[in-house]
Design goal:
The radius of gyration is 30 Å and the shape is elongated. It is mainly α and about 100 residues long. It has helices at about 5-10, 50-90, and strands spanning about 40, 45. It has a two-stranded antiparallel sheet with strand order 1-2. Strand 1 and strand 2 form a beta hairpin. The relative contact order is 0.07.
């Protein structure tokens, strides 16, 4: 049996293979071939074709639109709730004074 150091230097290390981020298309997982174009998106996201890249862009834009709609609904709810909260605070009675305990 070989020592761990020998296995490392011969390329047979016991650790799992960690693929490089340019090994496969992010969307369809097709292997990215050497000497072929790689289509990048948002800096470090590789795609095998313009079609895969465009599909990812469209999915991201749809998710962003959903997020903006949800965010605007939350902010409009907050705006409508704020005046009612202030009105109920104005109707509260507050007593000021000193309390002595013996």
């Amino acid at each position: 049996m070989k020592a761990a150091a020998e296995l490392y230097y011969t390329g047979c290390e016991d650790h799992h293979y960690q693929p490089h981020f340019l090994d496969a298309c992010t969307l369809c997982q097709r292997t990215l071939a050497h000497n072929h174009d790689i289509f990048m998106y948002r800096g470090d996201t590789p795609f095998c074709s313009q079609e895969c890249r465009q599909e990812q862009i469209e999915m991201d834009e749809a998710n962003e639109r959903k997020w903006k709609i949800a965010s605007s609904k939350r902010s409009s709810r907050t705006k409508t709730e704020t005046p009612t909260t202030k009105e109920s605070d104005a109707n509260k009675a507050v007593r000021n004074g000193t309390v002595a305990v013996a």
